[in-house]
Amino acid sequence: RGGQSKVLPRRLVVDMREFMSCLPAVLHQQGFDLVPTTLEVGDYVLSPEMCVERKALPDLHASLGSGRLYHQAESMSKHYKTPILLIEFDADKAFTLQSVHDIGDDIDPRNIMSKLVLLLLHFPKLRLVWSRSLHATADIFSALKSNQDEPDPAAAALVGVPVGPDGMPLSGSETVVNQAAQELLRKLPGVNDANYRSLMSAVGSLRELADTPVERLEVIMGSAKNARMLREFLDAPCPRA
Hints:
By secondary structure, the chain is α/β, with parallel strands linked by helices.
């Protein structure tokens, strides 16, 4: 009808862990409708086909080094038509990952730019987006969401959740989750997106995890290397002053 402006899509499904950062507050100020939930895949779901994994620079370096970003890119590429890795810089710092003088002619697996190139080569669907600041990210989300359908929060929450033989999500009984313990678990050496759920199902608490022998950890985690990394960390003595 004449005189009426088109309503722009403004809903974002946001992973609960993102609310520890400042971006959700900025998005709210910009008029986005934020729907918090626990996402197995991605940090922000912009549409039924578009998912964003957001990385500030410290997290980018850490997740590239640990291999966590590989698993995240793999999950997004599997479940979404348009998976996006958004690298967010601080507004008061240089808008660059490294000096041009540090970029060589060949692929160097120790170089962050080389790591990103290898990631994109491995996952051709993955789109890389650079953001200068939190407010720039809000503008980017607005542009990406134009002409897109609004995301369904319930559907987004089920993406990547394991299902049982009956096709029902296995997380159906997980109505209460110790979010702080889960976050701590996911930061431990050897723990990644592919095995943290198995650990949560097999051990009842972090205390029980600390008493779990490495042989059982190998079975639970499906990797002797990851099990050893975790066990060695748990057995390492605390430094004394």
